[in-house]
Amino acid sequence: MHAYRTHHCAQLRKDSVGQNVRLSGWVYRKRDFGNLLFIDLRDHYGISQIVVEKDSAAFPLAESLRSESVIRVDGKVNARADDAINPNLITGEIEVRATAIELLSEAADLPLPVFGNAEYPEEIRLRNRFLDLRREKLHANIVLRSNVIASLRRRMIDQGFTEFQTPILTASSPEGARDFLVPSRIHPGKFYALPQAPQMFKQLLMVAGFDRYFQIAPCFRDEDARADRSPGEFYQLDFEMSFVTQEDVFAAIEPVLYGVFEEFSGERDVTTPPFPRIAYKDSMLKYGNDKPDLRNPIEISDVTEIFRGGGFAVFAKAIEDGSVVRAIPAPGAGVRARSFFDGTNQWAKDEGFAGLGYINFKGGEGGGGIAKNLGPERVAQIVKQMGLGPDDGVFFSCGKPLEAAKLAGLARTRVGVELDLIEKNTFKFCWIVDFPMYEFDEVEQKVIFSHNPFSMPQGEMEALMTMNPLDILAYQYDIVCNGIELSSGAIRNHKPEIMYKAFELAGYDRSLVDEKFRGMINAFKFGAPPHGGSAPGVDRIVMLLADEPNIREVILFPMNQKAEDLMMGAPSEVSAKQLRELGIKFTNDGPKPQ
Fold it and tell me: Taking the model in full, what pTM does it have?
């Protein structure tokens, strides 16, 4: 017999009755009924019920076992009585009558229980992640993550992609988020950077002629944590393709994402390819952001001209100063108490905005709120333009275009949730396309790249030479699911002269491009194919499939919101010897090495 087990804890069935078996695992739960003691024995695969009789030689040890101690059990498989069958366990028709138990490792008092679903502070969970990972839901999430990655890999290979690994130690880039820097011992005063993404390397693979590349790529960005973003590191399905248009990229990745979501979605519906394409400007208008949750049926409207010169003086004056007005319908809300509308207005103020105007209709009457200030004729125009019903409400966001869009988008989500309009049990995908190539930085007072500096501008060199930079669109796109951005992508700028000009408009001279992007710009001078790709986030995909609100629930060993690993004690101070080897010395204002 094997030293530890003949079967795992989810393997025994009714056809195993009568067999002598050996199981090993953790004591998940104990129930003492005097003459009988029941142990739920758990391993990675599942649970088997162990029964220990009082007259058994194994009973004294079994009685003293602490939860989460590791034991080995020898025993005989018996069928459960009909009234004792547990339909919630795949081993629920059998039990193992223990003849011998050996304690393999005793557990100390637990800082958090493994059995049950009680919520515990995140600090305790992350500090004891090895225990947290034993809990059923989190353990299942991590297994799901592994299965999703295996499915992604299989589907990418089936689509004709080849997996390659790109470097982890590379050069720092002036674009994007903050880099994690790694000092070089061999080259004092110089630093490597951990890759924010394999962007340049995957483009170089296309120049090298590999045609279709992918990898499950680790990426590193020194960013603050959010519910849908882990600080420090994350993984993405990174891919790139040669000789493709934007539609070719969509056609390649849509079956992969659809297939994975369909495979792991359970009873939930998934958008069938081709996914809807929504222009950036339309998304900002209709949904108030560039990552719309299409489960919410509410669409925002521009009603600036209806308010221009009207009787609602606050909005009318703001419009003359360059503001716009966005209207957010609230279907069926007109019959709600006034507290619903006043509460939503107060919520907007609590979010840091000036507030929300509103009109509420009851039985098709003229409306409350700001209707009396606006006047019946203009109210009627709003009703007609938005197709409002006799018992609907409508909120109004006023401000400069981006500010008004942001508030309208947040209000759209809040109203959709409050009125229970969000479609359930579905994954709704869409592409956001036609992003602006540039935007104006109000702080720096200059034109900057708005999305990806390596994208091909629509119209190529002619657009860069003849158009206002803020009017130039790029072949850039995001894929969004249920309001979560899964990835950004683009058709790349593969022509050196267009790249020099694109960077020039953003304030980078030719020498700086040659210095910072030398590998890629040099490669493009030796024949580069048109190419493009994207990089859906693995962590976010799993978060959606697991129906978790926080990305840390699908990552094995995540950091906390302060980018600390509480279990391993990272980041940590290092010794003076290590710093000397790296040629690093702290200033008087900095921390002192140990």
Answer: 0.93
